[in-house]
Design brief:
Layout: E1 2-5, H1 13-22, E2 26-31, E3 44-47, E4 63-68, H2 75-85, E5 89-93, H3 97-100, H4 106-121, E6 125-131, H5 142-148, E7 150-153, E8 159-160, H6 165-177, E9 185-188, E10 194-195, H7 196-207, E11 212-215, H8 218-225, H9 231-246, H10 254-259, H11 266-272
Parallel strand pairs: 1-2, 1-4, 2-3, 4-5, 5-6, 6-9, 7-11
Antiparallel strand pairs: 8-10
Helix pairs in contact: 1-6, 2-4, 7-11
């Protein structure tokens, strides 16, 4: 049996590939640039693009299970091809945006909702993973931390239940390899709701050095982000922080319920990424 991992070089996908290989599974990893994939040698790395379904027919040959990275524009074509090719189990990397339905996050709601609907309509067994904010979003601060030992951002009291990408992968692998997850819609969080100010303090504690926090206004942060991120995404992110000040992310036990062990803390995530902040 072959398991196809799409988005195999992504933050979560790399962990999914590694854990499936550790479990002794035959893994086919899909990427647009195989020569740059840097995946384990045991993985069968193949070229393909979810945005171009016509490039995927060979990738699906002999595949029974699929880890699906979300690409809404071609989701129906990709899922239909998967089902016709013999895929019977699909685990989707979705987003909790489809649950919270924030007005500032409608692009994500639409993208992930489109993928979920396409999978639900297909003749396959499915599981949806709906993570909250990734702990990896803290990497936006990596440059200023490494060069100036400072974080400049707005909304220090915005509290997030940040989830480690490895926990998302562990739940994905459980859903791929074990029975009993069909039809599940797993909302995934870390084990704590931690403010942005506390995140910065945690990074400093793990790195063993002081990191200053300089608070920006909403407009200052927006102008800074617009240099690197599309306007819709900037407003989505800041809108989320506005809500999270008075309405912190809830903490859910899903990771422990599915995997049998507690979710990794934000400090755990920082320890796994110390090199990124040096």
């Amino acid at each position: 049996m072959t398991i196809l991992v799409t988005g195999a070089t992504g933050t979560v996908g790399r962990h999914v590939v590694a854990r499936l290989l550790d479990a002794g599974e035959k893994v086919r990893a899909l990427t647009r640039r195989p020569d740059e994939a840097g995946l384990p040698e045991k993985a069968e790395v193949v070229q393909g693009d979810l945005a171009l379904p016509e490039t995927l027919e060979k990738a699906f040959h002999g595949v029974e299970k699929l880890y699906l990275f979300p690409v809404g524009q071609t989701a129906k074509e990709v899922v239909d091809l998967a089902a016709r090719s013999g895929v019977r189990r699909v685990v989707v990397l979705s987003s909790d945006a489809v649950v919270t339905q924030l007005e500032t996050n409608q692009d994500s709601v639409s993208e992930h909702g489109t993928v979920e609907r396409a999978v639900e309509a297909a003749d396959v067994e499915w599981t949806f993973l709906r993570p909250f904010a990734f702990a990896g979003n803290a990497l936006f601060w990596a440059h200023s931390i490494s060069t100036e030992s400072v974080v400049r951002t707005a909304y220090p009291d915005a509290a997030q239940a940040l989830v480690h990408e490895a926990d998302i992968a562990d739940v994905a692998v459980a859903a791929l390899l074990e029975d009993g997850h069909a039809g599940a819609k797993y909302r995934l969080t870390g084990p704590e709701s931690i403010t942005q100010l506390a995140q910065v303090r945690t990074i400093g504690e793990v790195l063993g050095r002081e990191i200053r926090f300089e608070e920006l206004t909403h407009e200052q942060k927006r102008e800074e982000m617009l240099q690197f991120i599309p306007e819709d995404s900037v407003d989505m992110i800041l809108g989320y922080f506005v809500v999270a000040v008075d309405n912190p992310d809830v903490v859910l036990p899903t990771v422990q319920e599915v995997t049998g062990r507690p979710a990794r803390t934000f400090a755990d995530w920082v320890a796994d990424h110390t090199a990124d902040f040096q």
